[in-house]
Amino acid sequence: MIELYESQRAMRNMRRAAMQRGVVAILDVGSSKIACLVLRFDGTDPSDDGIGSLAGQSGFRVIGAATTRSRGVRFGEIHSMGETERAIRTAVQAAQKMAGIRVDHVIAAFSGAEPRSYGLAGQVEVMGTTVDEQDVARVLSACDAPDFGHGREVLHAQPVNFALDHRSGLIDPRGQIGNELSCDMHMLTVDGQAIQNLAYCVKRCDLELAGLASSAYVSGISALVEDEQELGAACIDMGGGATGLSIFIKKHMIYADTVRMGGDHVTSDISMGLQVPMATAERIKTFYGGVVATGMDDREMIETGGETGDWEHDRRTVSRAELIGIMRPRVEEILEEVRVRLDAAGFDHLPSQQIVLTGAASQIPGLDGLASKILGQQVRLGRPLRVHGLPQAATGPGFASAVGLCLFAAHPQDEWWDFELPVDRLPARSLKRAVQWFRENW
Whole-angstrom Cα distance, residue 100 to residue 40? Predict the structure, then answer.
């Protein structure tokens, strides 16, 4: 397991370098928009003051923000390198201009890349009387990594539970007395090519990649309140090209997945159904869309409006009931797919089964009522937590992953336990493998 931590360690060193300089950029690479936030850290290293995603959020302030229309990204993955590079440059330059400072390091989030979740377990004898960092490092490296296949890389590996002798449910076992330490870990792997494409694209923009995160994970960090993260909740991040899904309990993510459908597919259905351009379909969806029809909707007429130059064709009107008839089947299909993933993850066995909808596509009127019918649970619409300096325009559900990435940048949960392992405790073979893996992948 030791070699899996090497990329995290490299990222952590980059992040530390960025935090010493005092600024780092957050980049949310989505299918419909690319958002960039510039953070200024106040000089204290927030990783010292707590463990977990919500431990002391006062370490940074947003000093620049910009969004641009995403280009070259489909299903949350890069399809056209040149177009994506131009879009990232546009967003980063606009955010830098607002912040009045140059940024060299970025922490990026992306959806897609076919995430898969694994549960791992490890167990060791405690060396002394109390558990120290060496024991935690040894139990984490004792977790047996499954064979997750060629061409896949570990994106997140988090201990979700420690047990000392017969006492389970420990968050941080350091300093406690016991004999046998065991650990449960959640590991998320993604398609390696998708990560490498994103890393290469960021490099082409003359930026250093100081961290990577899954959009589903960071959306959950920002949209779920503390009680929901503790008792058990699912965050459904409905973006443009993909819908991310993450399940949290005890403040840790225990499952993540992605459905390759989102708000852009609803827009595409409207475009084909009403025979209007995509831009017009997006406007109609935003202003008049919905998923629950009422008796009034037959009488409410919508002008489709076009730019074809044919006056008769451009003057067409449709009823809102027709629009809802086009939108609802696709939204139902997305929610049914989410339901399948939740069932596969065993979500109905959690003590609390709150579902939080976030992402730009979650703002369709009536979506929460339809979701509670299909998913059969309590559903609420989520907005990202407030962070210092965030502009009003960036406080909507569409910015949940960008805000979550800010919290992740200040408190990377993957990294607080990744202690430096002394060479003499490790077999030479595993170190060789670690170096080889590191050289191949980063």
Answer: 12
